[in-house]
Write a structure and sequence with these properties.
cNMP-bd_dom_sf (chains A, B); 21% strand; Jelly Rolls; cNMP-bd_dom (chains A, B); alpha+beta; homodimer; 2 domains; 4-stranded antiparallel β-sheet; Crp/Fnr family transcriptional regulator (chains A, B); globular; RmlC-like_jellyroll (chains A, B); 191 residues
Chain lengths: 191, 191
């Protein structure tokens, strides 16, 4: 399954199979059961995850105690609290496995050493983050410009792989909608 | 004024003064008058900007023709449509100078060559984008968790340098509020 990681990297940079083996050595392969916590709020953020299979949900608890998703990650996506991972601070976000999930996990220390030893991985991550940041600005546009109903259908039509795999209530949370509202507009569309 | 760029880079990576001169050579120093357009929607996105002085506003036009800000940039910030800059596609965003603004501009070709010739700049941009992406996830949290009034005061208290320099109506647009609403809550706070 780690071949998926190699295929992903090769989409961005040219990395030899032997260098890939050395890169992979810095990671830990980890299987999480459904609902298992990978990161807990109020703790130091010291791990970056790459999803090989399954789905992770990064969320925070509102003052009222509701879980609100800020990002989820399926195969080929990176996830952590990137700001706190950079400086090793305490995070406000939880990361939980939505389904049974297999990840590659790398510690801050190993990440730093990896980038030191393999400058090609600086390029890889520069491209990954540049695209992720660019996509977040485009997301702002949809949040501002579309009605709640349009946001939901835009998302499910443009990201069918998420819509099929992620529970409706998490998609609702990610889009800033209530699960009840999503049920309502789905029923309206079917009728 | 280009010293500001060197100081910025030095916060992230170690770059010698002579290498900085070579890096700087790939950029064009450009002064824009207030309201001047630096990027126009429906055109190819081929330029990345670093603000030395002043302020840029990246916005799109809603279907109703209203300008909505997705990001602005003051000294020390990078701005472009990062997704389209990566692939040279057409952008949906406009970039306009809010005040008289001095930028360093780099073309896609020069950016690519710069990263080829100076791997240390891959590290620099990797860090810049990692932080920008991380901050965008934290912003999602505030957009979801806070009331509109709290969003406004959170922003102006945490980013006073923006609040002082950027017109109220742009801050309102960036935060997804109407200018009328911002006037109202400011008046309420003063009273």
């Amino acid at each position: 399954m780690t071949n998926r990681f190699y295929d992903h990297i090769k989409q961005y940079v040219d990395l030899s199979p032997s260098d890939f083996d050395s890169v992979l050595n810095r990671f830990e392969l980890k299987k999480s059961a459904k609902k298992e916590m990978l990161q807990t709020a109020e703790h130091h953020c010291n791990t970056l995850y790459f999803v090989l299979d399954g789905c992770l949900n990064m969320y925070f608890l509102t003052e009222k105690g509701t879980e609100r998703t800020v990002q989820f990650a399926i195969e080929g996506w990176w996830l952590t609290d990137f700001l706190q991972f950079q400086k090793g601070g305490k995070t406000n976000f939880n990361i939980q496995a939505v389904t049974q999930t297999t990840v590659l996990a790398i510690s801050r220390e190993n990440y730093k050493a990896l980038l030191e030893d393999y400058p090609i991985m600086e390029r890889y991550f520069r491209k990954v983050y540049q695209i992720a940041y660019g996509a977040s600005l485009v997301k702002m546009r949809y949040l501002y410009d579309l009605s709640k109903e349009e946001i939901y259908f835009h998302f499910t039509e443009n990201f069918p792989e998420f819509a099929q795999r992620v529970p409706q209530k998490l998609i609702a949370s990610f889009l800033g909608l209530t699960p009840e509202y999503v049920s309502e507009i789905r029923a309206k569309k079917r009728s």
